[in-house]
Structure formats: structure tokens, C-alpha cells
Amino acid sequence: MTHAQNAQQFRINPLTESFGAEILGLDLAKPISDATFAAIQEAFQKYHVICFRDQVMDEKAHLDFTLRWGELEVFPEEDKTTTAKTFYNVANTSREGEHLSEDDPRVLFQKVNARWHTDSSYRYVPSFASVMYSTEILPDEARGGETEFSNMLAAYDALSDADKRRFEPLHMVHYYEFGRRLYPALPPITPFERDAVPPVSHPLVRVHPDRDNQRSLFFTVNAGNEISGMSLEEGQALHKWLDEYASKPEFIYSHRWCENDLVMWDNRVLLHRATHYDMAKYRRAFRRTTVAGNGPAFGPFSLIPAAVTSK
Ligand SMILES: [Fe+2]
């Protein structure tokens, strides 16, 4: 498919049969017309994860593009991997360029994110989308370091009818502090963080009003493992099953990063995780912005919109 960016042409190439697309020939640092932006929005809604190749994006261009989509999420977390409140430094390097040791708390956060998650699931209003730009990528010979995406719309559809019914009333408890349970060496969360992001529950089956009330699975493996309405043991067993279920190859697109990739993904319908790589040997760095969600996640029995409850 070919579209015009003002005087330019660009192409959208699907990356798998079900989701993911790369966009070629578009320069996001240049002004984008409303018509071009509408075509990008359409692609995003259809493919869930879109990769813009060959982008040269400074922080301002990155922010300007993100703001086309909505309000920025401001990170409440203190002392994570960034010094700017609107950029999250997804990296095993510091913002000053130092290659960090594997036990540095900033690197431990990267290990937490090697588990399936959606960004900011631990907020009452989970995020809409993330926009991530590669600044240092692994060399071709290095193994791992991909970002894997798992399609939770497809995962829900593939459930048995019995599991669809069983999961309908369930919620998962999400909390920012869970990473500390996984890596006790991390510094404890601060009173500021505890107030900013207290534990929340989200429906395990998420309903999407912008997709004609289509349903997806909505859970994470980096921000909890408890299921409301089940005993701790039963909930953790179901959570473990979900973790393995999301890892089925038929739901996954694995993105091997190229220099100057800008990848944008839909946190409402996808999970993602980083694959293992040799952190002591290789540097890997990204700059990420996050577009805030516009409301809490709806479940099958949410009151709005009314059509949801009659489905
Ligand atoms: Fe993430």
C-alpha cells in the first residue's frame, strides 16, 4: 500500500500474517499532514505494532511525533533509568553513555521487562501506546536482544469456550512494587512512588469499545501474579499458564532491531518482552515515550458502553 507524506511516498509492509507492519519511505522528523497521520493511525489500529525504518529522531522530533497521538505519560517512578520525566531510557547504559554492570538497579529493571508485560499496566489508567527509538543496537552476530510482541486479541480468540467463560469475571492485581519481589536487590520503592502507583486490579478479559467491543486477554508477568477471586495458589497457577500460553509462536512477532528504527506498539492489545542477550558484552539502548490511556480498562461486565453487557 502506498501513501503520500506531503510530497513523499511511503509503503506499509505487513510483517506477519496477523499483525505488525513496517513503514518505509516516511520521514517522521518532517511535518506530517493530517491525511498522512490518519493513514498512520489506520495502520496502527490494524497492525498493532508499526516500525518506521530509517528515522533520524532527536528528542524534540520524538516528542513532537508522540504528542500527535495524545497526552504524554509522565513517569512517577523516581531514579529509574532516566533523568527526564517524559523519556524512559530502556538501556543497559546510562544517559551519559556508561555501560552499566549487570547488578546495577537500572539494568535489573531491564531484566524485569524481559517478562511479558504492557507498559504501565500497574496504573489505574493503563497506557495507550509506547514509542521507542533505537539509539544503540546489538551487532548482527549477537544473539537475543529482540523485542517480542504477543497478540492478545488472537490469544483470546484461540481460547476454548470454557476458558472464555471461566476467565470472564476474573481480574489480575497489578503493582509496580512486584519487581522488588523478583529482584530484592532493587532499592525499595519510595513513599512518593507508593502514593503515585498503588496496586490496582484490571479485568483479565479486556473489552475494546474502539474495536466493536472485541475482547483480548489483559495481564502481565512483570507486575504481579495474583488473580482476584481465586485462592493465591489457584491464581498463581492460572497466571503461570497464561505466561506460557502467551509464548505460543502463533501469537508472536519478534522484532530484531535495526539502526534508526522507531517502533510504536499498542499496549491495550499486545504484550511485549525483551529477549535475553549478553548484557555484560553488548550495549543496547532505546529512548521511549509513552502515550497515556484515556480511561480505565473495561471488562465484560463494565457498565459502559451498554452494548458490552449484552454481548
Ligand atoms: Fe516495556
Task: Write the SSE topology.
Layout lengths: L1 E4 L2 E7 L6 E4 L9 H14 L1 E4 L6 H9 L20 E4 L13 H8 L16 E8 L10 E5 H6 L3 H7 L3 E4 L3 H5 L8 H6 L3 E4 L1 E4 L5 E4 L8 E3 L3 H15 L5 E4 L6 E5 L3 E5 L10 E7 L14 H4 L2
Parallel strand pairs: 3-4
Antiparallel strand pairs: 1-2, 2-3, 4-14, 5-16, 6-14, 6-16, 7-13, 7-15, 8-9, 8-12, 10-11
The chain binds fe (ii) ion.
Enumerate the spans where pLDDT stays under 50 for 5 or more consecutive residues: none
Mean pLDDT: 90
Report the order of strands and helices.
EEEHEHEHEEHHEHHEEEEHEEEEH
Strand content: 15-25%
**CATH fold node name:** Double-stranded beta-helix
Superfamily (CATH H level) name: Clavaminate synthase-like
Number of helices: 9
Q: What class do helices, strands and sheet pairing give?
A: alpha+beta
Protein name: Alpha-ketoglutarate-dependent 2,4-dichlorophenoxyacetate dioxygenase
Keywords: Dioxygenase, Iron, Metal-binding, Oxidoreductase
Organism: Marinobacter algicola DG893
Pfam families: TauD (PF02668)
State the gist of this model.
The protein is of the alpha+beta class and 311 residues long. The protein contains nine helices and 16 strands. The structure holds fe (ii) ion.
Please give a structural write-up.
Helix content is 24%, strand content 24%. The protein has helices at 34-47, 59-67, 105-112, 152-157, 161-167, 178-182, 191-196, 232-246, 306-309, and strands at residues 2-5, 8-14, 21-24, 49-52, 88-91, 129-136, 147-151, 171-174, 200-203, 205-208, 214-217, 226-228, 252-255, 262-266, 270-274, 285-291. The chain is globular, with a radius of gyration of 19 Å. It has one domain: 4-Layer Sandwich (Double-stranded beta-helix), CATH 3.60.130.10. The model has no long low-confidence stretch (mean pLDDT 90). The strands form 4 sheets. Strands 1-2-3-4-14-6-16-5 form an 8-stranded mixed beta sheet. Strands 13-7-15 form a 3-stranded antiparallel beta sheet. By secondary structure, the protein is of the alpha+beta class. The longest helix has 15 residues, at 232-246. It binds fe (ii) ion.
